[in-house]
Amino acid sequence: MRSRSLLAPFRFRFTDAGDVARFGDGWYVYDEAAIVRMPARQQALLEAAIGLPLVQVMGDFVNDRIMGRLAATWIGVHLAAPNLAGDFDKYEPLILLVQFEQVLDGPTEDVAAPLDPTPGESSPTSPSTE
Question: Could you state, in order of their start, the residue ranges of all structural domains in the chain?
């Protein structure tokens, strides 16, 4: 298996009006390094909830696949506000309208959590790395 470096964290927010009504207009974080540092049993619980190995979620996110984006955003919301995220099998935001931005302007928390809704001046980016 080919290894890769972990991504710098991404912050994301929902932009569709229905999704904003459900999840709010603030930022959440998808942080691979924080996920890797979780205890194995907590990682196993995430995998069971999603139905996919975390390694696959990470790979699909890097490769800009819908399931990778869906699972990554669910993890971010779930770790910050489990009641908002709900069950993964019922989680259906308009994923192509979610705004992603890589966090390059400072440290983030060790677990995913909502961020200050006023990020730096960087422009939104896609999760794919070229």
Answer: 22-102
Q: Identify the H or E element spanning 30.
A: strand 28-30
> What is d(CA 101, CA 12) in angstroms, rounded to the nearest whole number?
6
User: Is the pLDDT score of 40 beyond 80?
Assistant: yes
**Maximum distance among all Cα pairs of the chain, rounded to whole angstroms:** 41
CA 92 – CA 80 distance, rounded (Å): 17
Across the range 47-59, mean pLDDT stands at: 96
Residues 6 or more apart whose Cβ sits within 8 Å of residue 32: 6, 7, 9, 58
Query: CA–CA separation, 50 vs 48, rounded Å?
Result: 6
Q: How far apart are CA 98 and CA 84, in angstroms?
A: 16
- Could you give the dihedral angle defined by the CA atoms of residues 28, 64, 15 and 117, in that order, rounded to the nearest 10 degrees? 30
Segment 111-130, tens digit of pLDDT: 344 444 334 434 333 344 43
pLDDT of residue 119: 41
Tokens of 19: 């999704």
Residue-wise pLDDT for 86-103, tens only, equals: 999 999 999 999 999 988
